[in-house]
Amino acid sequence: MSDLSLRATIVLLLTLMAGCESFVPSFYTVPVRQGNYIDPALVTELRPGMTRQQVQRIMGTPLVTDPFHQNRWDYYYQYGKGNKIAEQQRVTLFFSGDALDRIDAED
Fold it and tell me: How many domains does the chain contain in total?
């Protein structure tokens, strides 16, 4: 086999395999962070009676604001490595009017 045909065969195989990622073993997967990072120290600063603006200064904009439940803000954070969830946190804040009413946190 000549040097030119060997190169052509290698280029053809690499081109065919480029679209077949599932056949190539993967040794590294990019870690994925989703949502609002929830700092437990900041959650402890929240107090019933705080205004929405005060809460937003501490926690940031909520990930989910439900138009059907406008008195509820959901903060959710997930960190995944490969196919596994390494870390997951959720904090739900309930308001009565403009004032923080209660905090529901889950690790």
Answer: 1
Helix and strand element counts for the chain (H, E): 3, 5
CATH number at residue 65: 3.30.1450
Integer Cα distance of 94 and 100 in angstroms = 6
Q: Find out whether 93 and 100 touch, Cβ atoms under 8 Å.
A: yes
Q: Please write the tens of the pLDDT for every residue from 15-63.
A: 766 665 555 566 667 778 888 888 889 999 999 999 999 999 999 998 7
Task: Return d(Cα 46, Cα 100) in angstroms, integer.
Answer: 8
Q: Would you place residue 98 in the very low, low, confident or very high pLDDT band (cuts 50, 70, 90)?
A: very high
DSSP 8-state assignment for residue 51: B
Q: Domain containing 37: what range? A: 29-106
This prediction has a pTM of 0.67
Cα 6 → chain centroid: 46
Q: How far apart are CA 103 and CA 82, in angstroms?
A: 32
